Amino acid sequence: MKFFLIVLVIFSTALAANMTPITPDSIITQLFGDTTKAIDFYVQTTDPDNDKIAYQFDWGDGIIADWSAYSPSGYLFTSNHLYKNTGSFLCSVRVKDEKDSISDWSQPCTLNILPQLLKWVYESESGIFSGCAVGKTKEIYFTCEDGTLHCLDPDGTPLWKFSTTPHESIYSAPTVGEKIVYITSDDSKLHAINFSGNEIWNFKAERSITSTPALGKSENIYFGCDDGNLYAVSNTGKLLWKFKTGDEIAGSPSIGKDGTIYIGSDSIYAISPNGKKKWIYRPAEEDEVYFFASPAIGSDGTIYIGGTDGALYAITNNGRLKWRALNPDEDAIRACGAIDKSGIIYFGAENGILYKKEMYGEVTQLYESDDYIFSTPAIDTLGNIYFVSDDGFLYCIKNDGKLLFKWTIAEDSKEMMYSPSPIISDDGMVYVGSWEGKFYAFQGFAPPAKSSWPMFRHDQQNSARIEK
Question: Structural domains in the chain?
């Protein structure tokens, strides 16, 4: 009897040793790519005997890859492939173990290869840390850390460059008016530059400025300053008024339908167009919150702004708290949110997660990147969302969280808590800068969403103003 049991154990072990590897789950990859950049594919599977396993991809374009080297069971395996032709391709993968037992092919995933997602790249000489602006004739403006404002035509050809004197850093975005481009700088000045690249006037504040100017209906300019003041300056460079807040102002003002200016600092402030206080919303003292972010404004006038306490605040236009919604990890929110046509707010946090908040729902995770998100999302009419993470990628995802594509815009990390935000133009182009000094133009899928606040600073000119 003992001998029989021993034989049975040996026989069972032999059977287990010959078990076929488990067919891999579906491949994880983006939904779109182009013929200029290899696509990354991820797959993970386990072997029933815990043997090491090798992977083989059928790319769907007539090419079947060689078997990979062996990897531990359960290891997240990655490979990449460059498609040379456009079209839709079905990609699948299988595995084999160290005993040459081979699984079935996985369920295929569909990848759509377009002619060209990246249209062009312009290289400046300094880092870009904010959004750009698009003029009425499709010219593109962006600022650099070396104190320069660049103007490009739509195909990326440089038209002119303006330099502040001395070359103080610029971390804010340009704002385009009827005849003037407005920029602020660490030189404590608001600069007004005409469409030929010549400075018309400048206004000097008390301290450095990182706030992107907002533009009123009569083209009065509003911006915050490190001295804690919200400034109002006329389009001829004259100080109209300034309003003192309780701390420095790192973010940018936004303007409601009635001309009310909203700004964050130690609290959330609502200032009338004549410089008088309308109301102040102060969080509870124990919350110890500061508002780096700029306000986004809903179609009903609700002000949405994130705080360093990890909460998204919704404030009525008469200063009452509608709700305060914490992201699950309570990580600081330092950038403005964006709002889609149904009123859902999308925003990033310091934990690298892009969240969404429906009007009556909880804050839920939509997509996780690998580093901080200090970028404001941009939303197109199809509901696709573009954002930048400090991991160096521009992401484009669907509103259900599926990755459409991601593109490396920076290889190196950065120390700054400012990041460029993508802008969508009326023809569906997506423009974004990089802290490595490159400026990218991508062919997006659709124009900006027809919502109250679809992207950074509301519109392509960065007016930060709602008109209807």
Answer: 18-114 (2.60.40.10), 118-443 (2.130.10.10)
